[in-house]
Please model this.
Amino acid sequence: MRKEYDLQTDVLATIVAATSVTKNHSDLLTAFATRTDYRSARYVMARDVYSERPARILDAEDREIAADYHAWIDAQLEAHGGSVRAVWEAYRNAGYRLTEIRPLLHYFVHDRGGEQDNFVQLEVWEEQEFVERELFPRDDSWGLPRIDELRRGATGMAFIERSEPRMLGTPRYRLEGAIDMQQFISLATAMYDRRRRADGDRRLVETNRSTGEQRIVTVRELTPGYDQVRWSGRRFFDDWSASSAGRAGHRACLRWTFNTSDYTDPSGMRELSFVPQWAHTRKIAELKNTGKLDVYSLYGKLTQFDERIGMPFAWYFYGLHGNLIKSGQMERVLEAAEDGLIVLPEHDYQVLRRWSQHPYGF
Model:
């Protein structure tokens, strides 16, 4: 079912699929500019962390036996009584080959300007088909896969004799999504607020251990500042706008991409969230072994970090992510600022202070 924030259409998917993969994605950017509403689309980054997946089955002469490996293997298991060994016996000498898809996810952004969340994130797969192994090993000396492994495509890893996988055809684009992030964030915020209000209204029985006296209280009454807590995704963009990063004109959508999630649990409770992914391409080392540094040296390293990233107050947002900058380092900077040992711009100090009062991260 199409989501409220997903702007992808059959026309957009067709345009993306019909565009040739070129260096720097120049043809796709031209297609966006001339054939879609995303005329200002810019390339942001690629994510090369996805596993290869089974695609087709070919014979030894590259004739197609099945266009969909998963449908074929399900049919074979059904025909052979669910027996992995029976399927293997039927095809181990057939010389069939399994093709796979090597996926790479590209992020583009159409920035509509104004508010920091006012952009469309375009997610496009680049997929290359290749073949490097036969469907089944010729013998079972290394054992046979379990049925769940067979369904996933782990059929025994019988590699064809060659130094490199053989590419089939040319890479192709496939549209994954066109997400209106402003709509996504608005919807996610409303869902979070409704859920939090409902949780805050839950009534509990509080018992005085000394007197045994009981009273009915709500979660809200037991939690100082309960109604001040806001959804972390909304806070990310608000913090960006308020900080030196936003004030200097840097756009969050060109510095980060957003791995979105839309999950409904078995009870019907729906939750939208995202994890920000940095878009820098330079190798940036984690800020480690700072525990013994004085706060001046620590802040100096954070300033150097900003210079490498190319924007002010970058360390704060990387601290929210948590891989390169740690929350303990952020807390030390706040303490030093409050003690008058270092000077932060007032707007950055206020962002850091609000984070300390109600910490969040990704």
In short: The two ends are 27 Å apart (CA to CA).
